[in-house]
From TrEMBL:
Designated name of the protein: Cytidylate kinase
Pfam family, one: Cytidylate_kin
Ligand binding (ATP): 10-18
Keyword annotations of the record: ATP-binding, Cytoplasm, Kinase, Nucleotide-binding, Transferase
BP-aspect Gene Ontology terms: nucleobase-containing small molecule interconversion; pyrimidine nucleotide metabolic process
Record localization: Cytoplasm
Top-level taxonomic group: Bacteria
Record carries keyword Transferase: yes
Name of the coding gene: cmk
Signal sequence interval, chain numbering: none
Organism: Tepidibacter formicigenes DSM 15518
Gene3D superfamilies documented for this protein: P-loop containing nucleotide triphosphate hydrolases (3.40.50.300)
Coiled-coil segments on the chain, per record: none
Length: 215
């Protein structure tokens, strides 16, 4: 593998996306938000009134879906859907969709092709442990559930969403449970990943920590 591949894993709300975007700019490489890919599938299912419990229909839909990243935008079937995939409805259902083995296989195949085409920093739940086991650098970002929920709450409120902190705490805990206990490629820290607890660190401090290792 000639391209640089950086894997950033961790639970929901640990700061993966924000940190990865900044590092992508610093290193002038492509940022791939794999969680957004599963959100895109979830968003499309909800939009097309496909039952989240109907795995067969979800898999067929995923096979006929185009997902791409350009200039920090995610495209679903040719349309930018950056904001549409960040609603609480999508957040509450994405882990159910992401645990379906066949959908993960479709997404992982896409992710690996991206890493073969160009240098990437990719964040998700299973990048270092499954998607790119031979990544050049692996990081695992974590923080307490309440801290992660608070961050997500502030983020959604700033975007004008009407949300309750208690609902987000329950959602985060539920997603942690599903993500870490799914049978296929669960959320797990890779043995050779560098763990960074972001609870008491701001974004700049986390970015600096990661850049020290890369440099």
């Amino acid at each position: 593998m000639n391209n640089l591949v950086i894997a950033v894993d961790g639970p929901a709300g640990a700061g993966k996306s924000t940190v990865a975007k900044i590092i992508a700019k610093k290193l002038n490489i492509n940022y791939i938000d794999t969680g957004a890919m599963y959100r895109a599938i979830t968003y499309k299912a909800i939009k097309e009134n496909i039952n989240i419990e109907d795995e067969k229909s979800l898999i067929e839909m995923a096979k006929n879906t185009q997902i791409d990243f350009k200039e920090n935008n995610i495209y679903l079937d040719g349309q930018i859907i950056n904001e549409e995939i960040r609603t609480l409805t999508v957040s509450s259902n994405v882990s159910k969709v992401a645990q379906i083995k066949e959908i993960r296989e479709i997404m992982v195949d896409l992710q690996r092709k991206m890493g073969q085409k160009y240098s990437v920093i990719m964040d998700g739940r299973d990048i270092g442990s499954y998607v790119f086991k031979d990544a050049d650098f692996k990081f695992y970002l974590t923080a307490g559930a309440n801290e992660r929920a608070n961050r997500r709450y502030k983020e959604l409120k700033e975007k004008g969403h009407d949300v309750k902190l208690d609902d987000i705490i329950k959602d985060i805990q539920n997603r942690d449970e599903i993500d870490s206990k799914r049978d296929f490629a669960p959320l797990v820290k890779a043995d050779d990943a560098i763990e960074i607890d972001t609870s008491n660190k701001n974004i700049d401090e986390v970015v600096n920590d990661i850049m020290k290792y890369i440099n």
